[in-house]
Design brief:
The protein is of the alpha/beta class. It has one domain: Rossmann fold, CATH 3.40.50. The protein contains 7 helices and 6 strands; from the N terminus they run βααβααβααβββα. It has a 6-stranded mixed beta sheet.
């Protein structure tokens, strides 16, 4: 099963945020097979903005952080068709355009799950189910994946 991760998961895995979520995100990213995880390029851009802007990390350090993540997990580019789908999601379902683009890219990459706390937990669109990795109890599909 392939899955995509949203920016918030990587921010927590980088140790930024509340300690419980940071530990959970770090454990999750360590337990998932590198080949299973897809990271939309949009997520890497947002990660750069959040770590540099909100958490005041130096840009050169963040560049290395993103390079490390991209060495581990496949980066998925945004396509024109993904943007069109994201525009539809934004117009028809009220999603923020950048969240919608991440969801659309996950669908294009044939991911079954999108790990995010920003979108509606349990929402399924084009075969991708949004799962908050911080929700209790753990979503059954994520629990099965983690064994």
């Amino acid at each position: 099963m392939r899955l995509a991760v949203d920016t918030n998961v990587l921010v927590y895995a980088e140790g930024e945020g509340d300690a419980t979520r940071c530990a959970r995100a770090n454990d999750l990213m360590c337990r998932l097979s590198n080949a299973q995880v897809v990271v939309p390029v949009q997520v890497y851009g947002e990660l750069f903005r959040v770590l540099c802007g909100k958490f005041r990390r130096p840009a050169a350090e963040v560049r290395l952080t993103i390079t490390r993540w991209s060495d581990l997990h496949a980066a998925a580019d945004s396509s024109w068709s993904a943007l069109q789908a994201a525009l539809d999601l934004a117009a028809e379902q009220g999603l923020q355009i950048w969240d919608a683009l991440i969801l659309a890219v996950a669908a294009e990459q044939r991911c079954s799950l999108l790990l995010s706390e920003d979108l509606q937990h349990g929402h399924t669109w084009r075969g991708v189910t949004v799962v908050s990795p911080f929700a209790e109890p753990v979503h059954p599909r994520l629990a099965a994946l983690l064994g």
